[in-house]
Amino acid sequence: MGETNRVEYKREFNTDVDIEKEIIAFLNYHEGGMLYLGIDKAGKIIGLTDPDGDALKIKDRLKNNICPSAMGLFDVVLEKREGKEIIKIMVASGSEKPYFKKKYGMTEKGCFLRVGTAAEPMQQVMIDKLFATRTRNSIGKIRSNRQDLNFEQLRIYYDEKRKPLNNQFKKSLELLTEDGALNYAAYLLADENGLSIKVAKYRGINRVDLIENNEYGYCSLIKATKSVLDKIELENRTATQITSKERIDRRLWDPVAIREAVINAVVHNDFTREVPPKFEIFSDRIEITSAGTLPEGLSVAEFFDGVSIPRNRELMRVYRDLELVEQLGSGVPRILESYGRECFRFMENFTRMTFPSSEITPQVTPQVTPQVTPQVTPQVERLLAVFTKEHKRQELQHLLGLSDRKNFTKNYLNPAIEAGFIALSNPDSPTSSEQRYTLTALGKRVVNQ
Question: Please, which of 224, 295, 420, 442 could form a disulfide with 216 given CB 3.0 to 4.6 Å?
Fold first, then answer.
């Protein structure tokens, strides 16, 4: 394949290759692009003699020679094609245009734009226009309302990836405003903040019957994200269908797609509105809602084609460092591999992703006897068998002949509730002294079986 408006080839990487010029052109282009090193203009694979060393030099040059900072807007990836090693640089369209060479500033010698298959100097009129309309309301430019922030959780996560933070990490991770104060990105990543992400669970297909309302937050956004991922993984149970010929196991939601959706909702959430993403689990689907619609300059078609304009590049940088995000623009294609475009809904102020449950619907035929039932322990089986009406905890313990409340709660009651066999009369106050319990439809089905 030859060069296009989004693809540029360079035979080799040396001092004659103006790498900054090419990357700046893609940063200023509304679709971003990809630069390959080790491929000639005709698309022939040539290879590089020192790809690892070249990659380090490229990262250093792009970090230090481009303004505004392009960190979080590019990936440098080593690839092997036809047995030869090449470098692929993926560049997202930036939200703080115009980008320029630090050495020349916002002039025609410093600003470039992708035009066809070439990086052309940007006219001064366009430079001035872009600068006048540059988005200034970003989490990197907003000063944190608290300056007494600690980052021990962030240090731990970086240590786990063997990327220890030095004393200059606030500057290198761009957690400071231009005047040296901690910014809103720092606030979100700090050990303590005022942000809370909710994961709600409903009994049915609407928001009438709330049975769980979990909050993960007031801590580093990384920790909150991991907590949300763990909770949804716990809810993503396996449904089983047993036929006369085989046993079919299937997760309620594709785990790869759901993980990407959760990360995308957090990383691309418009935190300047101080509205966190929301996760809601229904009996037939999961809904993930984030603040903000598509970034300016990104069409729906471009979004589905994998074009990426990171809304919060400071967060994107950290999430990539911690390997929560793999490559720029990879999230949406991964989701589309399992779910169609219809799972996305772009509203005026929010973006929502809806993933239907893959619960297998039982269909009884002479040859097939399906069973879709979570595993039942002997203790849970005993508990379900004593239900005759709506009961209080003390009644259930008495019917089972159990005097130890802790044993009853841990081994009988809680597992039955978590499996969806028992419902609470007051789910908002699970420890209420007036709490009563009753069998759900699933619980009754287990008893009948």
Answer: 224
CA distances from 294 to 307, 326, 351, 359 (A): 11, 21, 8, 31
- Stated as kind and residue range, the H or E segment containing 35 is strand 33-37
**Quick count: other Cβ atoms within 10 Å of Cβ 77?**
14
Q: Tens digits of per-residue pLDDT, 319-357?
A: 999 999 877 777 888 899 888 888 999 988 899 999 998
CATH number given to 7-132? 3.30.950.30
CATH ID of 197-356, from 3.40.50.300, 3.30.565.60, 3.50.50.60, 3.30.70.260: 3.30.565.60
Q: How many degrees, rounded to 5, is the angle at CA 367 between CA 364 and CA 373?
A: 50
Q: How far is CA 85 from the centre of its chain?
A: 30
Residue-level length of the chain: 449
Q: Where are the domains of the chain?
A: 7-132, 197-356, 378-448
Give me the DSSP letters along 174-232: T-B-TTS-BBHHHHHHSSS-S-EEEEEEESSSSSSSEEEEEEEESS-HHHHHHHHHHHH
CA angle at residue 144 from 314 to 131, to 5 degrees?
Answer: 55
Q: Are 92 and 114 in contact (CB under 8 A)?
A: no
Peptide linkage before 68 cis (omega within 30 of 0): yes
Report the C-alpha gap between 168 and 176 in whole angstroms. Answer: 11
378-448 belongs to which CATH class? mainly alpha
Judge whether 197-356 and 378-448 match in fold.
no
- How does pLDDT run across 408-438, given as a tens digit for each residue? 888 889 888 888 888 888 877 777 888 889 8
